[in-house]
Specification:
- The protein is an alpha+beta fold.
- The chain has 2 domains: 6-76, no CATH class; 92-376, Tetracycline Repressor, domain 2, CATH 1.10.357.140.
- The chain is 58% helix and 10% strand.
- It contains 14 helices and 4 strands.
- A 4-stranded antiparallel sheet has the order 1-2-3-4, with no helix packed on it.
- A hairpin with a 5-residue loop joins β1 (6-11) and β2.
């Protein structure tokens, strides 16, 4: 969910002010707009992830001491957030804030919510066959609603804090384009649709669904009281694996579900710790806690441990589920993907952290493919 950096500098000898313009597109840069710089202001900054652009103007005042000697005597930087258009702006005007609230233009979260559910559906299939198509179709339809509801309730609780964080200050609830009451209604609407889809599964359980709702609704509060909100997120996202297994089988099989749940749990802590490094400076200022702040300079050692536990738990899952050899080949490829993430991650670069975070969709897809083939060849 690769960034390029281009810098332009111009010095005017007749003017004691030197202007430095930095243009840093995140993922996709819109056409240059000359009017952006035509106003007489000291600086303008716009930031976003995926569909926004950071443009920063820094003014440095210099005093001439001689032809070959200039002394820097001051630096002044001001920033303000400006939203840049995305494909969501092609939707009807009344629906745009809600589409942004559900993050429909940033699908990585949907993938990360979906994989534990899809893994469970694949493992629940009979030996030598693929999972039921209807079950997978229902999972694929339900996940965007679940993820949208999770984003909505998260933004509802974080609306005052989001105003203080550069990356999140333009979110609909933080900026006021959606009221808190409207946000809650939208959350309830998405969860109602999610419940309607789950009713189509053979053995849907209201108890497991209620636990899912509780976890999603309380996750945003964890970052205020513990440095381990990523662990609570791991519980939240991977509860879906238990829900889907029961919906398909009508009962639980702990020998398979427990290591599967642990696999996703450790994986979630890993990728969300990398993600949290994007906001660690703002988080420290506003009092938000995260494993990125907890681990600090030891982050790579910690997430290497979580990666090892994740792969080991997947191997145990495959063994207990009697998956065929293709699963282990794909598991080796998935382990290499995690090793690449950890080995190359620049935790001081928000752009690189976001790229590594988004790459986890490939990890999830590799594991899912391995489970499908492993079940067929079991």
């Amino acid at each position: 969910m690769a960034s390029l950096s281009v810098s332009h500098a111009s010095v005017f000898p007749t003017n004691p002010t030197t202007s430095l313009f930095k243009h840093r597109p995140a993922f996709r840069t819109p056409s240059a707009n000359p009017s952006l710089f035509s106003r007489k202001i000291d600086s303008c900054t716009s930031w976003s992830s995926n569909y926004e652009t950071r443009v920063s103007r820094t003014t440095m005042i210099t005093r001439s001491v001689g032809e070959d000697d200039r002394k820097l005597i001051g630096v002044q930087t001001n920033e303000e957030a400006v939203e840049v258009s995305s494909w969501v702006d092609c939707l009807p005007k009344e629906t745009r804030p809600y589409a942004k609230l559900a993050r429909v233009d940033k699908p990585i979260g949907t993938w990360l919510f979906m994989f534990p559910l899809a893994w469970s559906a694949a493992l629940a299939a009979p030996a030598g066959s693929l999972p039921d198509f209807k079950t997978l179709a229902l999972v694929f339809c339900a996940t965007p609603l679940l993820r949208g509801a999770a984003c909505t309730i998260n933004d509802f609780f974080d609306r005052d804090l989001d105003k203080l964080v550069e990356r999140t200050k333009l979110r609909p609830l933080a900026s006021g384009t959606v009221t808190p009451f409207q946000g809650l209604c939208f959350f309830g609407f998405q969860m109602l649709l999610f419940h309607g889809i789950l009713l189509q599964l053979a053995h849907n359980s209201l108890m497991y669904e209620a636990v899912y709702l509780f976890l999603i609704s309380t996750y945003p509060l964890m970052k205020r009281i513990t440095y381990w909100p990523q662990a609570y997120l791991g519980l939240t996202i991977n509860w879906g694996a238990i829900l889907v297994w029961h919906a398909v089988k009508g009962s639980l099989q702990p020998s398979i579900l427990f290591p599967l749940f642990l696999s996703g749990f450790f994986w979630t802590i890993l990728y969300d710790t990398i993600y949290a490094h994007q906001d660690k400076e703002d988080d420290m200022k506003v009092g938000i806690k995260s494993t990125a702040l907890k681990f600090g300079e030891s982050t790579k050692e910690w997430i290497s441990g979580f990666a090892t536990a994740c792969i080991g738990s997947f191997a145990l899952t495959g063994y207990n589920a009697a998956l065929g050899w293709p699963f282990y080949a794909f598991l080796a490829a998935a382990a290499a993907q995690l090793a690449w993430q950890i080995g190359t991650a620049n935790l001081s670069s928000p752009t690189d952290c976001n790229q590594k975070f988004v790459s986890n969709k490939w990890f999830g897809a590799i594991i899912f493919s391995g489970m499908l083939l492993g079940r067929v060849f079991s």
